[in-house]
Amino acid sequence: MVYQLVYVSAAQDGSVNTTIEDILEKSRENNERTQITGMLMAHDGNFFQVLEGDEAAVAACYERIQQDERHKDPIILMTKHVDTRSFPQWSMGYASPEDLSDEHRDIIISLTGLIDNLEAQFESTSPEISVLAGSFVRSFRDFGLA
């Protein structure tokens, strides 16, 4: 079984353009070593990332992300075990919403559907989570992805 973790965070300085290359370079190096695959999307000052691999390795990776000053307020949206990786060739793929293939777009659409279903729960536990998740989902809808 493969462990998947999906999270969102905000860019510390509000702009993903200044940090994305550094994040990708370091992520790819670390992820190849620990056999983590995944996909990172950045849009409108926010990051959306899927990490997948061994549960302990993914948890350690997410812990590093939480300590990374380039990420502000990372929030886990989903964790689950799956039979196969969604991004097997990507040590850390990067795409803007308009760059996604149909297959990966379908994955994102299903994840945004999950977020929609959880919004009521987010609102009851944390208004900040609701705003962040809702904002990111709307950014996908702006590109016709959801």
UniProtKB/TrEMBL annotation:
The coiled-coil segments of this chain are none
- Matches recorded under SMART domains: BLUF
Q: Which domain of life is it from?
A: Bacteria
Q: Name one Pfam family in it.
A: BLUF
Residue ranges annotated for the BLUF domain, each copy included:
2-93
Which Gene Ontology terms cover its molecular function? blue light photoreceptor activity; FAD binding
Q: Where does the chain cross the membrane?
A: none
Write down what this protein is called.
Answer: BLUF domain-containing protein
What organism, scientifically named, is this protein from?
Answer: Candidatus Phaeomarinibacter ectocarpi
